[in-house]
Specification:
alpha+beta, Archease, Possible Chaperone, Chain: A, domain 1, 2 helices, 9 strands, globular
Length: 163
């Protein structure tokens, strides 16, 4: 389970969670703006860690994850043959749980077994007094979804989201 905190930067191109001045901290999450589109990005030492961080980035569009207490655990499973499809399905499952049960999440735990993802989301019911509501995430696109490992062995999982 991992947790990163971010900051709001409405006018900028990127918002980042857990950044070290000396070198890039990993795991971490980011929000990127590409034209009018918003992209969530997770980085980690493993594919699972990158997926966890992408989920935190997604939830940080709705509410500051550090303001969320862990009161509930929600189990999520997905299956897809391509890692990009698996990422999009994972994030869609989170959006669905947030909307259907009016939940906000602080952190995630992911385990992968081949083409299956087993995830746990930790959070609480949305409380508009404690969690100033930023916006709803309406959807997750497969169009700009990328999952890759760089030369340093770090994993990146990024996906375009619709606000």
């Amino acid at each position: 389970m991992s947790l990163a905190s971010g900051h709001t930067n409405e006018g900028g191109v990127m918002e980042t969670g857990q950044v070290s001045a000396a070198r890039e901290a990993v795991p971490r999450w980011e929000h990127l703006t590409r034209g009018t589109e918003r992209v969530v990005r997770g980085r980690g030492h493993s594919l699972e860690e990158a997926f966890e961080q992408a989920a935190v980035a997604l939830c940080a569009l709705v509410v500051d994850p550090t303001s969320v207490e862990v009161r509930e655990e929600v189990e999520l499973t997905c299956e897809a043959t391509a890692p990009e499809r698996l990422l999009a399905d994972w994030l869609r499952a989170i959006v669905h749980k947030m909307a259907a049960r009016r939940l906000c999440f602080r952190c995630f735990a992911v385990r992968m077994d081949g083409t299956r993802l087993f995830g746990h989301a930790f959070g609480e019911p949305l409380d508009r007094e404690r969690h100033p509501f930023a916006r709803d995430v309406r959807g997750v696109s497969l169009m700009e979804t990328r999952v890759f490992q760089d030369a340093d062995g770090l994993w990146t999982a990024e996906c375009e989201v619709e606000l």
